[in-house]
Specification:
Blueprint lengths: L10 E5 L3 H13 L3 E5 L2 H11 L3 E7 L7 H11 L5 E5 L4 H9 L4 E4 L4 H13 L12
Length: about 140
């Protein structure tokens, strides 16, 4: 039985409010045969995730979002699916906040400015790795 490549049925939800970045990421992901969904703010991201969580393999989340802050978006997605895989991207992440997000089950971090191909590699690795569990202390 041929094993189908997992990437064809894995959608990536890109949550990013900078259009230029969305364009670059989308191009890099499509080139690697990933399906891409895009949300430009936290509220839209939660709605999209709620409706389509079965198809979404990993979420790439910009932490500085309009409407609903990144950490709240992560926690709301975790309520929908405790195994959601989230990779966070941001300019600078304070170490204390970073460890809080790790406790919230974030899979990985990407620093801005980034190279879209590095992002694709990180997302690819994240799709293949087991989800990180939510640590009980995350909501402190």
């Amino acid at each position: 039985l041929p094993v189908s490549s997992p990437r064809h049925n894995s959608r990536i939800l890109v949550v990013e409010d900078e259009e230029k970045l969305v364009y670059l990421l989308r191009k890099a992901l499509l080139r690697n045969q990933y399906n891409v969904l895009v949300a430009s703010d936290g509220a839209q991201a939660i709605d999209l995730y709620r409706c389509r969580k079965q198809e979404i393999g990993v979420v790439l989340l910009d932490i500085g979002l309009p409407k609903i802050a990144g950490l709240d978006v992560i926690l709301r997605m975790k309520e929908e699916n405790p195994n959601v895989k989230v990779v966070v991207c941001s300019g600078y992440i304070d170490p204390g906040f970073k460890s809080k997000m790790q406790r919230a089950g974030v899979q990985g971090f990407i620093e801005k400015p980034y190279n879209p191909d590095d992002v694709v590699r990180t997302l690819c690795a994240s799709l293949e790795s087991p989800p990180r569990q939510l640590d009980a202390s995350a909501s402190d």
